[in-house]
Amino acid sequence: MTIFGPALDVRPLFPRERQALLDLLGGLAPEDWSRPTVCPGWDVHDVVAHVLNDYMRRLSGSRDGYFRAVFADDETLPAYLARVNGEFVEALRQISPRVMGDLLNMLGRQLDDLWAGRDLDGPADLNVSWAATDVGSPAWLDIGREYTEFWVHQQQVRDAVSAPGADDPELMGPVLDLFARALAYTLRAEERPEGTAVELEVTGPAGGRWYAVRRDGRWEMGPAGAEPAARVSMDQDTFWRLATRGITPEQARERAGMSGDAALASAVTTLLAIVA
């Protein structure tokens, strides 16, 4: 157990999630590729190109040790990512859906091989900033973050083309579990006595309950040793959209059940599990 909670191994799920994406893309009509998505300025083709960029960037960095990030003057990490993601997407607008699908299939299997060789309890290649900024992330959390990234972008495509989601509990459950690991970091500005606990409940077939507990002057993920000072409950669709800012914290509060310490409960609804 760490401040992030128990380890979660999502590696067996990557091939299933990817095949669901490829099956979805293979059934799209030509006009579907131009449908707008929740990502500002990006259509379906652009979101798929972004997923391909994620594959290529992780293989280049984590497997090949090839890092060529060049930040502009005074450019923050979110600004840098927005810029380079946009540049890649724009460049791939000349690439056909079939070519992108072939590349996703080939490079995805290479990513599977990369993750299979990782020690889950070893250090992450890339720290997960939305879970902690002062403690290094374990590899399982880094790999899990990549799984959530791929799953979310698939859902964005499904939303855009009105296709049923890849939301069976085996695929979606780990996404919610990983997003919940942002709970302790979300509460970081809230000072409370030692042992204070907060409960997050996500309802639905893929949901669950998670707790953040105040220990040694910080919030950590773990079992509650006392009655929670605040409880927040929301359905699984609301939670993943909140965590990725598909909806706002205000919209999440309208859909959530909240009780106990009002400031703690309100803070929970600001949970963010992406770099933004």
TrEMBL record:
One family name in Pfam for this protein: MDMPI_N
Keywords: Isomerase, Pyruvate
Domain of life: Bacteria
SUPFAM superfamilies: DinB/YfiT-like putative metalloenzymes
UniProt GO molecular function: isomerase activity; metal ion binding
Mycothiol-dependent maleylpyruvate isomerase metal-binding domain span: 16-157
NCBIfam families membership: maleylpyruvate isomerase family mycothiol-dependent enzyme
Protein name per Swiss-Prot or TrEMBL: Maleylpyruvate isomerase family mycothiol-dependent enzyme
Lineage per the UniProt record: Bacteria, Bacillati, Actinomycetota, Actinomycetes, Streptosporangiales
